[in-house]
Each structure stands twice: as structure tokens, then as C-alpha cells.
Design brief:
Its main location: membrane. Keywords: Membrane, Transmembrane, Transmembrane helix. It is a single chain. The protein has helices at 2-74, 93-115, 124-130, 133-145, 152-189, 194-223, 230-251, 260-278, 298-319, 342-360, 378-420. By secondary structure, it is mainly α. Helix 5 packs across helix 11 and helix 8 runs antiparallel to helix 11. The longest helix is centred in the first third of the chain and has 73 residues, at 2-74. The radius of gyration is 29 Å and the shape is flat. Residues 1-17, 291-296 and 416-422 have low confidence and may be disordered.
């Protein structure tokens, strides 16, 4: 008689446990769904915040341009400020650009310090990054206004530091572009996608190579029409050599990366070479460009506006690409993780503030630039040429580094086997 009783009691206990488990599971499921919705809303706010910061960066660019080209008339009444010097000269032109740039740098530096190491959507750092726009607008106004009270010596010192910051920005941009090219090549040329995208990848790489060759030929025709243009001939010829070297190494049996990534990279360095030569001062014997009649020719204005948009887009795309700079690529993304690295995002924008300052003053603190001009002068030309050479060097190292590491590992294994043998 004891056994049936024990069986009944056990069955009752199992039934009670099952019922409570069901209730607990339903509560847990509802709680998880509620959290999932909250995380989704926070993620949307975070993604929208990127565009607001990009718009803020665009506004500071436009402000720097207005102060450079038209600030002397508007700020002439600021002569009573000791920092602005006589008739406000030190708050317009080049010094005005640096003051606005410093204000933009201060704003994004403060955002960097207050959102550094923010990793979760439910944290205070995420709330500050994605909300409180009225307070951040006041912070932006104060950040931009304060540098106009700084002495001239400090602004000149900031201008020297900005060259370093702009160089860091260019390096980050290069790494981001090369990582994107590598991802594109791996995506289309992987073993799984090769059957579907192989022909498309071959067609795309052919288009890029044709565009690169046509670009080199056109640069020879337009910017090196005679032997007197020796510097331009050197720039273009060296670019062509880099193009051939990248293609040969990509097709080498030990590297075997195909033509897609090298084709895209070839077009990129040809573009950098063209951009560098276009930044040269107008010289009749080596450049087809002529001084536009007046400073407001529509082609000059259009090119200037496109250049500003390019600065903003380059800063924005580099800022959201924090994954290219992670040491661990296999980190699992959880549901409550922030969609991008806030600290890195604001760091890139702070370096971008220094970068746009250098473009507006053509990397030169001593000479004023003309209206509606940007990034023109020998300093700008050499910065872009060096940028091109560094880009090619980084890309070539990414091609050969796996082969070099593999050779070192094989050599170490060979030495170990050799010493271990009797």
C-alpha cells in the first residue's frame, strides 16, 4: 500500500513543478521580450545619433569656411577682444579657422571622455550619447565660443598639433578603406561565393583596372604634357609602378588574392595621385587649370561644396568603422551591446576637426588661402602623395604578412625538429 501512495505523491509534486515552471517561463519570456523591445528602441536612437553628430560636424565646417572667407567683415567689431588683436584680424582668416576647429575638437573630446568604454545600451553613457540634445547644443556653443578668447600663441600651438592629429586621421581613414577592400574581396572571392560571384568579381576587377590605366594615361596627357613637368612625371610613373607591383604580388602563388582587391586599391591610389596633382598651385606649363574669373565661379563653388561633403562623409564612415581597429575580431555581439564604439566614434571626429582645419588652411599656418579654395598648395600636394605611398605600403604588407608569418612558423618548427633529433 505504501508504493502507490509514494507514486501519487511523486506525481503531484511533478505536476506542481511543471505548472510553476510554465508560469515562470512565461514571465521570463515576457520580460525578455520587453527588454528586447527596449534594446531595439535604444539601438535606433543610437544609430540616429550618428547622423546628428555628423550634421554638427558639417555645421562647424561651414562656420570655419565663413569665418575664413567672410569673417573679417563680420568680426571687425571684435577688436575690443584682446585675443582678436587689432580690428579682429586674429579671429578671422587662418586663425579663425583654427579657433572654430579647436572648438569642434573640444566638443568631441568632451563627448569622448564622457562616453569612453560605454558598452551597454542600458548604461548612462548610452543615454548621454543618444539624448540630451539641448544640453549638448549649449555645450557646443560654449566649446566654439571659448577659443575666441584664447591668446594667439595658444592658437598657433594648436595649429602645429593639428598637423599631427590630421595625420592620425588620414592613417585611420587609410586603414578603414583597406579593411573595406579586404572585406569586399573576401566576400566575393571566398570558396562559398566564388561560384556565384566569381564572374562578377572578375568583371569588377577588370573595370577597376581599366579605370586605373585610363586615369594614368589621362594624367600624363593633362599634367605632364612636356618633359619640364618632371615632378608630375615622377608622381604618375611611381603610381603606375605601384599598380603593377600590387597586381604581381596579388597574383603570386603564395599570396593568391586575385585581382579584385588589387584592382580596387589601384583605382584608389590613382585617385590619390590625381588629387595630389590637382592640389598643386596653378602652373601654366604643367596644369590645364586656369584661374577662374573671380572667386565665385560656379565650378569652383561646386567643387568646394563637394570637398566639404567629402570631408564629412570620410569622417563619418571612419568613425562608425570601429570593427576594423579591434584586436579581437571574434567577439560575440550581444543584444544589449552598443551598435558601435562611442569612444572611437568621437575620437575620429575630434581628429577630423584637426583634419578639416588643415584642409581649409592648406596645411600652412603662414599664408592665407583664396576664397572658395580648399586643400591647395605644395604642402597639400606632398601630404596627399605621402598618403598614397603609405596606403600602398599598408596594402602590400597586408598581402605579404601572412606569407612571412607562415615562413617564420615553418622555420621555427624546422629548428625544433632539428635540435630534437639525435
Amino acid at each position: 500500500m505504501d508504493e502507490p501512495i509514494e507514486t501519487v505523491e511523486t506525481g503531484v509534486i511533478k505536476a506542481n513543478l511543471t505548472s510553476s515552471d510554465v508560469i515562470s517561463w512565461e514571465e521570463t519570456s515576457l520580460s525578455m521580450q520587453k527588454k528586447s523591445v527596449e534594446y531595439s528602441l535604444e539601438r535606433r536612437k543610437s544609430l540616429k545619433a550618428r547622423y546628428i553628430y555628423g550634421f554638427v560636424f558639417l555645421l562647424t565646417n561651414l562656420m570655419a569656411w565663413l569665418i575664413r572667407d567672410y569673417g573679417h567683415q563680420a568680426l571687425s567689431e571684435m577688436h575690443y577682444l584682446k585675443a582678436c588683436g587689432n580690428e579682429g584680424q586674429d579671429c578671422s582668416h587662418i586663425m579663425g579657422v583654427l579657433r572654430v576647429s579647436l572648438g569642434c575638437f573640444i566638443f568631441f573630446l568632451l563627448m569622448l571622455l564622457t562616453t569612453f568604454k560605454t558598452s551597454k545600451l542600458h548604461g548612462a553613457g548610452n543615454t548621454w550619447h543618444s539624448r540630451w540634445w539641448s544640453l549638448k547644443f549649449v555645450l557646443l556653443v560654449i566649446s566654439v565660443a571659448v577659443p575666441f578668447f584664447f591668446p594667439l600663441s595658444f592658437i598657433q600651438f594648436y595649429g602645429e598639433i593639428s598637423r599631427i592629429g590630421a595625420g592620425i586621421f588620414l592613417l585611420l581613414q587609410l586603414i578603414s578603406v583597406i579593411e573595406f577592400i579586404t572585406w569586399w574581396n573576401n566576400y566575393w572571392m571566398s570558396e562559398e561565393e566564388l561560384k556565384q560571384c566569381g564572374s562578377l568579381g572578375l568583371f569588377t576587377s577588370t573595370i577597376f583596372y581599366i579605370a586605373s590605366i585610363c586615369g594614368i594615361v589621362l594624367m600624363y596627357m593633362l599634367y605632364a604634357p612636356r618633359l619640364l613637368c618632371s615632378l608630375n612625371i615622377f608622381f604618375i610613373s611611381w603610381t603606375a609602378i605601384l599598380l603593377i607591383v600590387m597586381m604581381v604580388i596579388s597574383l603570386h602563388s603564395k599570396v593568391n588574392r586575385g585581382l579584385l582587391s588589387s584592382g580596387i586599391m589601384a583605382s584608389y591610389i590613382v585617385f590619390l595621385c590625381w588629387s595630389a596633382i590637382r592640389s598643386e598651385p596653378v602652373i601654366e606649363k604643367c596644369s590645364p587649370q586656369k584661374e577662374a574669373a573671380g572667386n565665385g565661379h560656379w565650378t569652383t563653388v561646386l567643387g568646394f561644396l563637394i570637398a566639404i561633403c567629402s570631408i564629412v562623409m570620410a569622417t563619418f564612415s571612419t568613425g562608425i568603422d570601429s570593427q576594423s581597429f579591434q584586436f579581437r575580431k571574434d567577439k560575440v555581439q550581444e543584444e544589449d551591446d552598443v551598435p558601435y564604439d562611442y569612444g572611437f566614434f568621437h575620437f575620429v571626429f575630434s581628429m577630423g576637426a584637426m583634419y578639416f582645419a588643415m584642409l581649409f588652411i592648406s596645411w600652412n599656418l603662414d599664408h592665407s588661402t583664396k576664397k572658395w579654395s580648399i586643400d591647395v598648395g605644395w604642402a597639400s600636394t606632398w601630404v596627399k602623395i605621402i598618403n598614397e605611398w603609405i596606403a600602398a605600403s599598408i596594402y602590400l604588407w597586408k598581402l605579404i604578412s601572412p606569407v612571412v608569418r607562415q615562413a617564420k612558423v615553418m622555420d621555427q618548427e624546422g629548428q625544433i625538429h632539428y635540435t630534437a633529433s639525435p
